[in-house]
């Protein structure tokens, strides 16, 4: 054990530094997200969801930096990442709407003018929806119509349609 620690002392110290920086930066960014969310009166669940996205992104970056710290060759990483991205590309191309809805959910966190409890009308040429926003999730909105029906509406479509605010904090 002592020989292992002596042999890889620099790599272990650098790894601790990388993950220490990762946790500090991730903590600061999540703190900033919470403040932004609270200042814009966002739902705590949405703030936590965006925080998870941030954590996963920073963890991927930290693992990439850690690979360099441990001495992995760039050529080896290129092979691994090209294989992973090829599989992800095929998967996401087949399910592009999932990625589109998640991205729309992130955009809506920062710039969506409507909040949970607002009564809105979605203008679509096939159907008009008038409902109260019950929940905003990562893939879709839950809308409650006046007759009590629950409508789920994809985030990416909501950003493409005209929406009218009918009443702030309406209760059905």
Unreliable stretches, pLDDT < 50, 5 or more residues?
Answer: none
Biggest pleated-sheet summary: 5 strands, antiparallel
Distance between the termini: 66 Å
The overall strand count is 5
Mean pLDDT over the residues:
84
Helix content: 55-70%
Summarize the structure.
The chain has helices spanning 2-7, 9-39, 44-69, 74-94, 96-111, 155-160, and strands at 119-123, 128-136, 140-145, 150-154, 162-167.
Structural notes for this entry:
The chain has 172 residues and is of the alpha+beta class. It contains 6 helices and 5 strands. It is elongated. The N and C termini lie far apart (66 Å).
Topology:
Layout: H1 2-7, H2 9-39, H3 44-69, H4 74-94, H5 96-111, E1 119-123, E2 128-136, E3 140-145, E4 150-154, H6 155-160, E5 162-167
Antiparallel strand pairs: 1-2, 1-5, 2-3, 3-4
Helix pairs in contact: 2-3, 4-5
